[in-house]
Amino acid sequence: MRAARSNAGFTLLEMLVVLVIIGLIASLVGPRLFSRVDSSKVQVAETQTRLLRGAVETFRLEVGRIPTAEEGLAVLYTAPTDERAKARWHGPYLDEAVPADPWGTPYQYSIPGRDGLPFAIYSFGADGKQGGEGNDADVGFLPPDRRGASGFSLLELLIVLVLMSFMVGLVVPRLSGTVEAIARSGDRAEVQRQLEDLPLQARQRGRAIAIPPGESLAEVVDLPEGWSVVAETEVHVQDNGMCAPATVRVDGGGAAEEWQLAPPDCRVSYATQ
Asked: pTM for the whole thing?
């Protein structure tokens, strides 16, 4: 019986147990292993871009310029077609043709580079697309940050514009009201000053000032635009500057008030507001 089992190998149950154990081990070890593989590929890409940069710098020293965007990295292994550059080219500057990156995608070459570097040499990373994070991030000497060059992305600009519109909607009405209040306060002070100067005006004219009730004081007061001052009781100032008590209605800046002119110098006080 023992000999028969030895020749048969494993039972079906034993095979299933082994497969389950192998599956568990793979689920635990596999992700970490693949992560390490991708991490190693990033390190390889960084090393290769540094080597390619060194080759470009050597090309630059001998030819007197960096490869054009049209020539790309291929000119490091194959002489340029431009006769002047070809005469100074002493390549190849690589032991073999330009390699693909560890993910099988050609290395990118563009002009200019970031942070003052005149060129960019980089890999798109594991996803083969520009941008990304982690192992998908671009690797090498990168081109200028488009976002940094323009300040904001289109989405950020739209968000800023919406927020600015919202703030303008909140602030401008209040600001406008504040400006109007300041302007009204200045106009109000000017009207008061001119009313209190009526005694001086009468003395300078050498004749009395008399404004009957219901009449405007516009002929003796230079009113701001949109303002009116009407006598509710007679306004009388003698030629010697003596002012009789009077009440005037002042209307301006969206508000109407009754002002009292008190003797003997037409000092203004506010009856209602």
From this structure: 0.44
